[in-house]
Amino acid sequence: MANATDHLWMHFTRMASYSAGEVPTIVRGEGAYVWDAQGRQYLDGLAGLFVVNAGHGRTELAEAAAKQAGELAYFPLWSYAHPKAIELAERIAALTPGDLNRIFFTTGGSEAVEAAWKLARAYFKRTGKPNKYKVISRYIAYHGTSMGALSITGLPGIKSDFEPLVPGAIKVPNTNFYRAPEHGDDPEAFGRWAADEIGRAIEREGPDTVAAVFLEPVQNSGGCFPPPPGYFDRVREICDAYDVLLVSDEVICSWGRLGEYFGAVRYGYQPDIITTAKGITSGYAPLGAMIASDRLMEPFLTETGMFAHGVTFGGHPVSCAVALANLEVFAREDLVGHVRANEAAFRATLEKLYDLPIVGDVRGDGYFYGIELVKDKTTRETFNEAESEGLLRGFLSTALFQAGLYCRADDRGDPVIQLAPPLIAEQQHFDEIEQILRTVLTQAWTKL
Ligand SMILES: Cc1ncc(COP(=O)(O)O)c(C=O)c1O
């Protein structure tokens, strides 16, 4: 579509890069595939943006949206309720671990993260620890773009334009075992060290000032860093010792992505808050949620108590109806079980790429993988800025797409290719992903 750049301001996009060429315009989806305006087919290796977990083209989700819009298009959750929000909150509470029973709906992930930080602050103000306002998160982690969520985000490149940000957002090391600064030969010792870095940061800042730690079950940015063994057990101990809330940011890692409804369940830890969005509706309508424990809601249950926060479209009736229909699909087709049954095959298929000189590390869990590209496998030497520019932005993203695979070549940390296909994907899709990557990465190597 020739006029795509005339008025449309695309997100995180170098608009000038399209001045000569056409903007790829996706018009249709079915299962694990999408089609562009010229009719070309692509395997959706990223489920849109870690979103379309149930796959494209589910007319029953579209019908659920239409039915709800016809019945009640909109009503706020500000002192009123509507049936689909009530039902969905109950349904979610039944799926969450422990007493995470209180569902505060938003329209997306940044708002969920924003709400979680606000709740942490308000909770401590109401329980006699008013100086606890800081948050800890990890280097290179992405937690959203609104000012609070952006402050929690650990990617300097997307923050500097907007500084000064919200004060009190402290950063600690992530769990990149491939580039572990310590204990690179011992995942358990590394996990213990990385978790203890959180404890040390709390000590440095002053335990009376720290409200919450925000962690993804598997950190996305940087290319899928799963938690080393024992990491979350130790983090939980530290949070308990210092009375700091543990927020599991599962905007990507919930709704089956890791073979469980929630990533915290997969790794066996109990958060105080889960933030979620994306796959909750499989993208058929926008929705997010902050899910809090009963304990955190208690101070707001007094006669005049209130969490003074809200957004107009949080828990939109159409989105809630779609989420319920989406969860019906999940249950009927056991999508979560499907991921568990197939994740080893997905991993094994991607690991075939280790025979390419450019593939340094294949890491992830469930249907969520990062493939780190390196210049030298033995030394793990990475690419310099100019090479990254030429290779990732100049060549790989476009070449993969032209070869029929939509995924993401990302160098916000070290250069990685990120994969998160719809949860319906099976061996034929894994093979297609592997073959396209093999061809394009082989070409990329010759360009270095
Ligand atoms: C872990 C995490 N948190 C928060 C967000 C922000 O979500 P949204 O883009 O829906 O605001 C994202 C988005 O990718 C995310 O991956």
Provide a descriptive summary of the structure in words:
The chain is an alpha/beta fold. The chain folds into two domains: 62-333, Type I PLP-dependent aspartate aminotransferase-like (Major domain) (Aspartate Aminotransferase, domain 2, 3-Layer(aba) Sandwich), CATH 3.40.640.10; 334-446, Alpha-Beta Complex (Aspartate Aminotransferase, domain 1). The chain is built from 14 helices and 15 strands. It has helices spanning 4-7, 47-50, 59-71, 83-95, 109-126, 147-152, 187-205, 231-242, 263-267, 294-297, 317-333, 335-351, 385-402, 427-447; strands at 26-30, 33-36, 41-44, 102-106, 134-138, 169-172, 210-215, 245-249, 273-276, 288-292, 359-365, 368-373, 405-406, 408-410, 416-419. A seven-stranded mixed β-sheet has the order 4-10-9-8-7-5-6, with helices on both faces. Strands 1-2-3-13 form a four-stranded mixed β-sheet. The chain has a four-stranded antiparallel β-sheet with strand order 11-12-15-14. Strand 11 (359-365) and strand 12 (368-373) form a beta hairpin. The longest helix is centred in the C-terminal third of the chain and has 21 residues, at 427-447. Bound molecules: pyridoxal-5'-phosphate. Pyridoxal-5'-phosphate (PLP) is lined by residues 108-110, 113, 142-144, 216, 220, 249, 251-252, 277.
